[in-house]
Amino acid sequence: MVRPGHCEDGSRNIAVIHVDTIYRAAHLIPIYGADFIPDSIKYYHSYDAFRAFYVNKFADHHAFEIAF
After folding, report:
1. DSSP letters of 16-44?
2. Cα angle at 22 between 63 and 11, to 5 degrees?
């Protein structure tokens, strides 16, 4: 499980990273709660709409070797 980082004042901990430092993309599955998810939510809002995610270790063979 992973979740976004926050600073002490409650703001999001964000940074700009170089593209050449990315090793592999991760397939994240939102952790759904008991609340209803509105139809108006779009896929590009998912990072802001959910508080935590599961890392899908079964997405492909290479992701499984790297993550676990």
Report:
1. ---GGG------EEE---SSPPPTT--GG
2. 105
